[in-house]
Amino acid sequence: MEEVGTSLAALVRAAARRRPDAPAVVAGDRRLSWAELDAAVDRAAAGFAAHGLAAGDRVAVQLPNGLDWLRASLGALRAGLVVVPVNTAYTDPELEYVLGDSGAALLVTAADRAPVGGVPVCAGPPDADGPAPEPPDEPTAPSFLAYTSGTTGRPRGAILTAAALRANQEQCLAMTPPPVREDDRVLLVLPLFHVYGLNAGFGLVAATGACAVLQETFDPVVSLTVMADEQVTAVPGAPPMYQAWLAAADALGNDAALRRGFAAMRMASSGAAPLPEDIWRAMRDRAAVTVWEGYGLTEASPVVASTLATGRAKPNCIGGPLPGVELELRDTATT
């Protein structure tokens, strides 16, 4: 690993020192350089300290993709806190369960509301003057408590350390070509509360000093316009996104907008579910884009396999293990 500190907040600081004036985030009309983002993270960290929170306390963040999500989560990390990313679609009972199970001391939401399950609420990321806390860098300490989807029961929290997140970034970036480079502009519409968008998305942006183009929600037509206007060169995606982009082109009766959106694309990837072969081939034939598929899981921070690791893109395939990763296939019926 590079000696730049392990947490996402430390990577932001390193990018700010290395490329202070380079674009870090585009979110609608709002744009921040790495130096500006770093300063905003400092103010949020000072704000958490002003709330009386101490290193190791857990802060739940229930915000949509955007600058506020980055300020809240990165500010909490810089203050030495553990971030609990919360699905914005949770009902109040689901939210109360996660808050209680995680032991959250504060909930950051988009709008003010009454405490939930006895947990106080902060509307938006806190902001304060003064120096940010400077807790020691502890790579093996928890950074995130990420809750799984709960497909087989209630969501369960997976502890992700700074070292685990950083290791997965390094493993991804060791592939050729890398999924994100310093000169990339990366569309981040995958939810940042999910580990895919969190680390395979923003984590790689912070590790390389690239630029994140954030979208709060996914709209295929709007996103194609944003991709064309911002000259997006990389997109971590999921099968429904590619299906929606193709469907939008079908509805328009031509592939002009589809091709404009992907005109600058260097790297398109897909995970979270199998990508149907007809969609993979349609993206290649109609958008002139090769989609690289992979597989991951929350507990692995998250990527463990990719067709990028084998250098051969093909449908119905998750490729091989990332550099430094060992995989073993077992039959759950016999083990």
Describe the structure.
- The protein is of the alpha/beta class and 335 residues long.
- The chain has 11 helices and 15 strands.
- The strands form 4 sheets. It has a 5-stranded mixed β-sheet, sandwiched between helices.
- Strand 3, helix 3 and strand 4 form a beta-alpha-beta unit.
- Helix 2 (34-50) packs across helix 3 (67-78).
Looking at this protein, list some descriptive labels.
2 domains, 335 residues, Rossmann fold, globular, alpha/beta, four-stranded mixed beta sheet
Walk across the major sheet and give the strand order: 11-12-13-14-15
Topology as a string of helices (H) and strands (E)? HEEHEHEHEEEEHEHEHEHHEHEEHE
Structural class: alpha/beta
* Top CATH class of the largest domain: Alpha Beta
Number of separate domains: 2
* Overall geometric form: globular
Number of strands: 15
CATH fold annotation of the largest domain: Rossmann fold
Gross CATH architecture of the largest domain: 3-Layer(aba) Sandwich
Q: Tally the helices.
A: 11
Profile the largest sheet.
Answer: 5 strands, mixed
Unreliable spans: none
* CA(first)-CA(last) distance: 35 Å
Beta-strand proportion: 15-25%
Short description:
The chain is of the alpha/beta class. It is 36% helix and 19% strand.
Secondary-structure map:
Elements: H1 8-18, E1 23-27, E2 30-33, H2 34-50, E3 58-62, H3 67-78, E4 82-85, H4 92-102, E5 106-109, E6 121-123, E7 142-147, E8 157-161, H5 162-173, E9 185-188, H6 195-208, E10 211-214, H7 220-230, E11 234-237, H8 239-252, H9 256-261, E12 267-270, H10 277-286, E13 291-296, E14 303-306, H11 307-310, E15 320-321
Parallel strand pairs: 1-10, 3-4, 3-5, 5-6, 9-10, 11-12, 12-13
Antiparallel strand pairs: 1-2, 7-8, 13-14, 14-15
Helix pairs in contact: 1-2, 1-6, 2-3, 5-6, 8-10
